[in-house]
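Weekly sync notes, structure subgroup
Attendees: PM, AL, DS (notes)

Item 1: joint prediction request from the bench team. They want all two components modeled as one assembly rather than separately. Inputs as received:
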Amino acid sequence: MREQDRRDYLEKYQEDKKRGIPFFPNALFKDAIVSLLVFVALVVLSAVIGAELGDQANPSDDSFTPRPEWYFLWLFQLLKFFPGNLEFVGVIILPGAILLILAALPWLDRSRTRNIRGRPIVLGFVVFLFLGVLGLTVQALLAAEPPLEAAGGDPVALLYTENCSGCHGTSIAVPAGVNLGDVISQGGHEGMPAWSGDLSSDEIDALVGFVLSPNGSAVFQDSCSGCHQAVGLAATQPLTLRAALQPGSEFEPHAGLDLPSLDESSATALVNFLIAPDGHRLFVLNCAACHGNSAQFAGTRNELLAIIEKGGGHLTMPAMGGVLPDADIAALAAYVVAPDTAPASSAALFEADCAVCHGTRVPVAESVEAATEIIVKGGSHQTMPVWGDVLTAEQLDALTDYAYEASQGSPAVLGKTLFEQHCTVCHGEFGEGGASPVDPSFTIGPISTEQYLVTRDYITIRAIITQGQPDSGMSPFGLAFGGPLDADEVGAIVAYIRSWQDNPPVELPPAVERAPLLVDVADIYAGFCAQCHGADGEGGIGPSFQSPEWQAIHSDSQLFETIDLGHPATAMIGWGDILTDEQISGLVELIRSLQGGPGTPGPVAEVSFSGDVLPIFQSKCLACHGASGGWSAESYQSVMASGNSGPAVIPGDAENSLLGQWLLGTGTGGFMPPSGSLPTTEVDAILAWIRQGAPDN
Amino acid sequence: MSDRVGGWLDERTGWRLVWDGVFLRQVPKVNWAYTLGSATLIVVVNQIITGILLTIYYVPSVQDAYATVDFISHDLTAGWLIRGMHHWGASAMVLLVGLHMVRVIYHGAYKFPREITWLSGVGLLVLTLAFGFTGYLLPWDQKAYWATVVGTRMLEVTPLIGDWALRVARGGDDLSAVTLSRFYGIHVWVLPAILLLLVGLHLYLVVRNGISAPPKKGE
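Output from the run, pasted for the record:
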């Protein structure tokens, strides 16, 4: 705006003002009326609708579908147009640009025209913005209801719109190697619910297919949906499926139908959609019939891929004739033909001689004679299909990944071992629970019932294991909370516990009666304290009870209190609710008896400064505490006399000596050495030396 | 009598200067659309008063937040009204600020000499949305929790500093007690302080430059 324009405006404004009205009372009157209306509206809204308060926030119940307040809905909706890597355009760039344009409006629109008719661009921008925000908001509000038009169309797309698109937008980029079926059924990350409670496994399979191959869904919609329901068809055998899709094939059920022909890429997309590249599922469909639950394999991943891809008689069965006694072969043949009616001894034979290759699955044989011949002669009696012709590249990769991982010992297998080590003492071998070993009146509920597993997702179970349940006597097992297990190990235990879900070993109500109760103090120690403090009190995660120093600085009442109430910020939980006072007192007594370790009671031998203490100083302290100032660890004289905070050693009083406090971390300064505590034996030697009176011996 | 009291006070405070300058000032003839700004101001006052009342009973901790909001809503005398007014006041704010803005754009009122008034108004718009976002979490119900989980997660997509921004907003990797106290502090202390400053500037400029006259055809 030019100088002249500005002066004109101000002059004109002065005129307008002169012809105007005083603010009070005339203009204020209008303001007061509108303000009063707004105020009344607020009161009415509060009285009629009120402010809603839902259920209390529950981070472990992530089945809640989050929706922002209405004035952010348009932004929420906008995000759906920017999936994946483009998300930041919807989150940052577009809103940022709108805000920037708004802020800069006086400088973007510099004309002297004020009437809206003279400013079409600004008018256009505002109308566009208003309609955009309004449109997106309405769209978001409508999206809350299941979209009606999709109901008659693609049912899998509808599943996706209802359950996934709210957070994920129109498509999801899945990194290679992710087991999408598991992610969907168990929930993956924050905010992502476990869907296994709401969706059937067929529906989850269909969703996996849709996410990994949305084009396949479209092909299905065009070519197959006239006759087939996607969700039902998704469980088809891959061999059948491939036969049906083979160009020019004489697939019996399709005979006489005028079917659209598919090009190679469409067919691949369709196969990927119907049987998603999900390793576990592919293994179940393609391999489990012959290989059982897992295949053993010792080579590399590429070798495995080659075997799966090329198929054929890759394994030759050795001839068993002459190796096994005839009676055994007869028993095995009978077992193979009719496993259910064969004697138990033949099952044991199969386990011993055949399971190494055949796994848990019993091969099918037509007759005892045929079976006997195969067992006697061996050879490539069964040919593995050439999976490279049947599966798509994506499916082959996923299958190989899964089979290879499974052959290396899957998480669930590792989890079983860990569960037996850490959990069975309280939860029983199958998570059946029972009376608490230390407090017979407290019953540990079963954790392997279907009800328990369905209502707790992966994150919850992981949190319970990691953080413990101090109120019911479960100490934390996560490394971060002072326990012994790292995140992978906890994950493996969760995977093992989760594996019960398909086939829960425990039905409600549980058998509560269980084994003898641990009321003996020694048993309590062995069952619980020893996990962290060692069977002989030698220490581990918790401090060593054998250390005379540790024993000396803790009174009986302190020990009692720590067992009773626990120790904050460590894995030591309070046992007061679980153990009786008598049991705790008994434990204190027992802990006292552990001093010095098994078989080495008696007074500690005299410590020599030059022989025992100085070498520790020289190797561990002198690098810093030498000539560089402060306390010097160089010689007896410097140890006793130097230091910025007064003498480091008070002869005879290890606990109040600065040196002792630094080594134990009990003073105000912290810990020495900064890299971590010295070994217990070295600390003990130094403290014992001070307690002797710090002689120069 | 009132003249004498008024005169006595004026000698000591100079209130007549303010009264004449603010209330008796001459304004151009305006229409009803010009009441949107003052309506917004009334809602701001409503938010401040009900907000202060809410803080008397509200406790911003994970253990107590939900219980205290529940108490305010159901047990406290007129608590439903206080919380209801604050809740609906938030929506009214957004709505009125938006309409006020449309009015200003429509009349070209952001032009000389009111550019700074406009700029402070845009700041107040952002502030209003920030109030809405931080306040939404405070009742600590499911809706609040999960909407904030998703809302803060959006920060993560910022290029380069996404992870960092997410951790700053949440006070850690997950939404937790830290997030609650953080949002409470921002909602109750930081944003109101900025709000008062900006509203003060906005009003001062409105009085100083006068309210714009509705432009006639061809102006």
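Discussion: Residues 177-209 of chain B form the longest helix (33 residues).
Action: AL to compare against the crosslinking data before next sync.
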